[in-house]
Amino acid sequence: MKEVRGPVLVGVAIAAAAVIGGAVFAVVRKKGALASDEAGKGAKGDSAS
Asked: Most buried pick, 3, 6, 8, 45, via CB within 10 A?
């Protein structure tokens, strides 16, 4: 069992990193969208599409 433990932990770590990274990316993207909406309020922004 001990030989299997390493790869499993690595897989779990990669999965956790992917989930955390995805969440952070989503938040950053949302903030970026909000910022570009604020910046393009006067003009017709491309972010509308």
From this structure: 45
Q: What is the largest CA-CA distance in the chain?
A: 63
Closest CA to 35 of 24, 47, 22: 47
This prediction's pTM? 0.50
Higher pLDDT, 49 or 27: 27
Q: Where are any strands of DSSP class E within 1-49?
A: none
Task: Identify the pLDDT of residue 34.
Answer: 78
Q: Which one-letter amino acid corresponds to residue 11? A: G
Do residues 26 and 34 make contact, with C-beta atoms less than 8 angstroms apart? no
